[in-house]
Structure formats: structure tokens, C-alpha cells
TrEMBL record:
Transmembrane portions of the chain: 12-35, 68-95, 107-128, 140-162, 183-205, 241-262
Organism: Brachybacterium alimentarium
Membrane topology of this protein: Multi-pass membrane protein
Location relative to the cell: Cell membrane
Recorded family membership: Belongs to the binding-protein-dependent transport system permease family.
Keyword Phosphoprotein: no
Keywords assigned: Cell membrane, Membrane, Transmembrane, Transmembrane helix, Transport
Highest taxon of source: Bacteria
Protein name listed in UniProt: Sugar ABC transporter permease
Keyword check for rRNA-binding: no
ABC transmembrane type-1 domain: residues covered: 72-262
Biological process (GO), any one: transmembrane transport
Pfam families: BPD_transp_1
Length: 276
């Protein structure tokens, strides 16, 4: 029995190790190649260890004519505005669907949530035509308007958590004279801080990595986001893979840092949601 248990544990760890290599291997390859000089990469191949590690690829990204300064700045602005808009409108909408009473509330909620089932590619052409008709193509507003007014996923998740707020606490605050906004910002939001932090991270990751819509609605370098800029590197520098990998490494670095810093909050939010 002990041998079978040991064999089972060993098999489990082997499978997990293989999965870890397959998952983390591409990222490790990207980082190693980003710090490899182009001459070494050409001579020793893609699996060579940087000797010594070099920053010339990252310097080239920010000093070239089509560098990453503008895409990074544009991406940060887009993500910041969308994040603020989505959090504000999603929290307000989720609170209304969870705690307020009005005709057609549940029907409106489920119709809105049903839009989660619609693939993004289906709405790209209608959105593009709408933006073009009002003269917003290739502008900052075109990048943020389809996403800034809330997210069906965020509203659904927040609504389910807001419904779990004890009614005794809400009734006590109402007796003390608290209005709707005071209940929301001083009771509901603080009690659901972990899930809100998780939604902040999901929103940042989603729109930092957004590629299809920015590629369709913008043209030229003025409003190019980091994902489109990275894609342009692959066509512009097809043989200079060290530079391309430096771009991909730079694009994913902020997200890795965010996940490391806020991993505890994510774990807490998942645990709280599961218990509810």
C-alpha cells in the first residue's frame, strides 16, 4: 500500500512538473532571449543562456523611431480610464441589482449578463462602424468607450457578493440615517474589498492585453497600444528575435508584478466567494 501511495505521489508530481514546464517554458524562453545579444542568439541558437545578460534590446526598444515610449504611455492611460470607469459603474450597477427594488430588475440583469455569451469578434464590426460614423476612429475615445461603462462579468460577480451582505447591518445603518450611497461606500464596498481588488486585477490584465479592438480601431503610431506595438515588432524585425522577445517581456512584466504583489488578495477573494 505504501509503495502504491508513493507511486501515486510520484506520478502526480511528474504530471505537475511537465505541466509547469509547458506553461512556464515560453515565458522563460522569452525572458532569456530578451537578455541575449543578437550575435550570441544567431551563433548559439534560441536555447542559449545569456552570457553575459545584456540590456541592449530594451535600450533599442525605447530609442528607435517606432519605440515603446508612446505605446506604453497610451496603454497606461487607456487601462487607467477603463479601470476607473468599470469599477465605478460596475459597483453602482451591482448594488442596484442586488439591493434596490424596481420593476424588471431581474430580467434586465439576466439580459445584460447574457451578453457575456457573445464573442467579442461578433461586435467588432458594428462597433467599428459606429465609431467611424461619429468620427471617433483612431482616437483615444474609441479605445475606451466600448469598455468604460461597466463589465457584465464584474457586475455579475459583484452582485452575487453584494447579496451576501448581512441585512442586519444594513438595517442598523438605515436606522442611523444612512442613505443609499453611504450604505454602499461605508458598508458594502469595505466588506467586499477582496473581490473588488480581484476585479481590479482582472480588468487591468484584460485591457493591458487587449489586442483585437485597438488593432481594428487605430492606425499609425499615435494611439498604438503595447500589444499592437509588440505585434508590429514581429513583422518589422522578423529576424531580430531578441528585440521581439524584449518587447514581449516588457509587455508582460507589469502584469507579473501585479500578480505577485496581490496574490494574497486574490486567494482571499476566491476563498470568500467559495464559502458564500
Amino acid at each position: 500500500m505504501q509503495m502504491r501511495a508513493l507511486a501515486g505521489y510520484a506520478g502526480t508530481y511528474v504530471v505537475l512538473a511537465v505541466a509547469a514546464v509547458l506553461t512556464l517554458g515560453p515565458f522563460l524562453f522569452s525572458v532569456l532571449t530578451a537578455f541575449t545579444r543578437s550575435q550570441q542568439f544567431a551563433q548559439e541558437g534560441p536555447l542559449s543562456i545569456p552570457s553575459p545578460p545584456a540590456l541592449e534590446n530594451f535600450v533599442s526598444l525605447f530609442t528607435s523611431a517606432d519605440g515603446f515610449v508612446t505605446p506604453v504611455a497610451v496603454t497606461v492611460q487607456v487601462v487607467a480610464v477603463i479601470l476607473v470607469g468599470q469599477m465605478v459603474f460596475s459597483v453602482l450597477a451591482a448594488y442596484a441589482f442586488a439591493q434596490l427594488r424596481f420593476p424588471g430588475r431581474d430580467l434586465l440583469f439576466w439580459v445584460y449578463v447574457a451578453t457575456l455569451m457573445v464573442p467579442q469578434v461578433v461586435v467588432v464590426v458594428p462597433l467599428y462602424l459606429m465609431m467611424s460614423e461619429v468620427g471617433l476612429r483612431n482616437t483615444f475615445w474609441a479605445l475606451i468607450l466600448p469598455f468604460v461603462l461597466g463589465s457584465p462579468y464584474a457586475i455579475f460577480l459583484l452582485r452575487e457578493n453584494f447579496r451576501g451582505v448581512p441585512t442586519e447591518l444594513m438595517d442598523a445603518m438605515r436606522i442611523d440615517g444612512a442613505g443609499t450611497l453611504r450604505l454602499l461606500w461605508h458598508l458594502v464596498v469595505p466588506l467586499n474589498r477582496p473581490i473588488i481588488v480581484t476585479l481590479v486585477l482582472i480588468t487591468v490584465v484584460t485591457h493591458w492585453n487587449n489586442f483585437m479592438w485597438p488593432m481594428v480601431i487605430t492606425s499609425g503610431p499615435e494611439w498604438r497600444v503595447i500589444t499592437v506595438a509588440t505585434s508590429a515588432l514581429q513583422s518589422q524585425y522578423n529576424n531580430n528575435w531578441t528585440l521581439v522577445m524584449a518587447g514581449t517581456t516588457l509587455a508582460m512584466l507589469p502584469l507579473v508584478i501585479l500578480m505577485i504583489v496581490f496574490q494574497k488578495q486574490i486567494t482571499n477573494s476566491v476563498g470568500d466567494t467559495t464559502m458564500r
